[in-house]
Amino acid sequence: MIKRWYDVSRGWFSRHWKRVLLFGVGGAAALTIVGQLFYPSDRMVPFASVEGRNYSGWSKADVIASLDSLYKDRTIDLYFKNSSRVYTQPKPADVGLSIRNERRINGLEYPWYFRLVPSSIFWMHALTGDSSPSFETNAATAVDYVKKVFGEECHVEPQNASLKATDTSLEVVPSSIGGDCNTEKLIDSLLVVRPTLAQARVDIDGQETEPAVNDAAAQALADTIMSGVVEGVTVTAGDLKHQIPKKELLSWMDFSVTDGTLDYTFNSDRANTYLNETFAAKVAVQSGVTTIATYDFVETSRVTGASGQALDVAGTLEDVKKGIANPDYNVSAKTVATAPRLQYNRSYSPTDTGMAALMQNYAQTHAGVYGVSLVELSGARRHASYNGTKQFTTASTYKLFVAYSTLLRIESGAFQWSDQITGGRNLATCFEDMIVKSDNPCAQALVKKIGNQTLTNEAKAIGSTNTTFMVDNYLSTAQDQTVFLAALYSGQLLSQQSSRDKLIDAMRRNVYRQGIPKGISSATVANKVGFLEGLLHDSGIVYAPTGTYALVIFTDGASWGNIAELAGQIEALRSQ
User: Fold this and answer.
1) CB 525 within 8 A of CB 543
2) Measuring CA to CA, which residue among 344, 273, 280 is closest to residue 311?
3) Contacts of 440 (CB under 8 A, 6+ apart)
4) Strands 178-181 and 155-156
5) pTM of model > 0.70
6) Which of 11, 206, 318, 575 registers the highest number of CB atoms within 10 A of its CB?
7) What's CA 490's distance to the chain center, in Å?
8) Where in the chain is the domain with CATH 3.40.710.10?
9) 3-state class of 551 per DSSP?
């Protein structure tokens, strides 16, 4: 049965095979045409490519995005004319160039009449060709780029090659060429450049300038250094040997170009840290002490101590460099003599000269700037000063002059103690607060009431000739204030003793006592202080057992402790 069916079928096919083949081919062609007719128009045809990149079957939106991204990151190679080296590589946006691929990709159509051609879907890609992107230029951006990179004069200095240390090796920092160009021509070239993904080159119409030190020269120096520091450099000092590791040596090197040659120096700060920690103490010799005796700041004798020895870091580094250049060279530590330490044994006479010398020595051996003045108001009537006529901003010590001018007006009847001054306080309260508590609003109200020029004139009239209220920060000197205090104590100021007593009594009750009063605890002190930022001043009348005197200490950058200490030393000397 089966054999019979086979024989019948075979016979039929042998008689009708041409018809079968025709229908088969026609059916396949029909199916292909149907597939072509319905192939999405928003997709690339099979085997399609753009600028050598395969986009077979991609959606056109994805192809546009891909090409836009590639062009966005594509650099434009700028060469000086006839140069084989790229000078710089801006991206299109840097030079004002916008590149879009939407038009070119959406323009790749698969027309209906080709879709009716059997198998056209497989060879259509060969007929579409490859158009260019759309380009838009922004001249202002191109101009800004040229000015930024090439300067107003279109001149670029070449950059020399250099070296940098990386752990235990040296790497070349590449050189770059420079040159001169024509600004307008360069801008025009950037505005007409039309990059492809395969090539984007602009030739700069100008002359290339070679760096003085190229990469090969830098590499040659690196090779020389590395051959000289294979394991480090050994430094000797007598029987002592110390090896400086290669990594440490390389970290000290600073590279620079001098007269067209790349070379290195050792950074002294970095080298000092290592040498002082590992080597300096081993070669150091302690210096002796030179003892100098002075009397009233004049040298009377000197015993000279022995010199010492310290590591000469600069000289040692110079020798280390010789050892790197010549591995057979014996590197030795260099030393330098150190002067003996100075020790002063100072003494002072209880005289004008001795006390002035004490003031000077204290000021010169302690932090800050000093102005000091002393006038004895009884006894030997000595006086001494250091920087006594140097003007300082008064801080609150100006309130002594304000108090004096106020009392003048009380005595003349121009002011009454019941007069209202500021903040609901009358003159009696304000006077008290200004001196005892150093109140500023009361003092400033009285300055305004009396007048800056009047205050200045009245200070000068009593001998305080370097005191002025005619500047924003009132000025005075230590000597001016001892003149004021001496006149106040001796009765030369004001006509009524009650007026003088009122001011001195308020000064006795001044609440700020960390300066002169603390330094002379054995005496009663009537004082007025001033403090403003770094300024600390103290002006006082000292009622000491050995006699009364005016002492003023002005300072800038010192401390209350310094003022107290100096006051104590002055009192101890004058009490001898």
Assistant:
1) yes
2) 280
3) 396
4) antiparallel
5) no
6) 206
7) 57
8) 352-574
9) strand
Which single residue is written with the structure tokens 């590395």? 226
Where are the extended beta strands (E) located within 296-368?
298-303, 308-311, 331-332, 335-338, 341-347
Tokens of 317: 């580094």
* Entry field: residues in the chain: 576
DSSP 471: S
547 falls in which pLDDT band (50, 70, 90)?
A: very high
Phi and psi, residue 488, nearest 5°: -65, -45
How many Å apart are CA 387 and CA 369, to the nearest integer? 9
- CA 258 to chain centroid, in Å, comes to 27
- Contact, 80 vs 87, CB < 8 A? yes
Q: Are 76 and 202 in contact (CB under 8 A)?
A: yes
The residue among 492, 351, 502 whose CA lies nearest residue 434 is 502
Say yes or no to pLDDT of 361 above 90: yes
Backbone angles phi, psi at 26, to 5 degrees: -65, -40
Out of 177-186, 252-261, 354-363, 566-575, which region has the weakest mean confidence (pLDDT)? 177-186
Contact between 38 and 30 under an 8 Å Cβ cutoff? The reply is no
Asked if the model's pLDDT at residue 494 lies above 70, the reply is yes
As a whole number of angstroms, the distance between CA 433 and CA 443 comes to: 9
pLDDT at 523: 95
Give the residue ranges of DSSP H helices in 208-267. 215-228, 246-252
Q: What is the pLDDT of residue 25?
A: 59
Handedness of CA 257, 258, 260, 262 (dihedral sign): negative
Q: CB-based contacts of 97: which residues, under 8 Å, 6+ apart?
A: 76, 135, 136, 137, 138, 142, 190, 193, 195
Task: State how far the alpha carbon of 397 is from the alpha carbons of 367, 436, 438, in Å.
Answer: 22, 12, 9
Region 564-576: mean pLDDT is 96
**Under CATH, which architecture does the 352-574 domain have?**
3-Layer(aba) Sandwich (3.40)
* pLDDT for residue 207 is more than 90: no
Q: What percent of the chain has pLDDT over 70?
A: 95
pLDDT for residue 32: 81
Q: Which of 8-12, 21-25, 529-533 has the highest mean pLDDT?
A: 529-533
Q: How many CB atoms lie within 10 A of CB 536?
A: 24
Task: Quickly list H helices, 437-527.
Answer: 440-450, 452-461, 478-490, 497-508, 516-519
Print burial letters for 89-99: b (CB count within 10 Å at least 16), e (below 16): ebebebbbbbb
How many other C-beta atoms lie within 10 A of the C-beta of residue 559?
Answer: 15
Query: Which residues are 77's β-sheet partners?
Result: 201
- Tell me the angle at which helices 399-412 and 452-461 cross, rounded to the nearest 10 degrees: 90
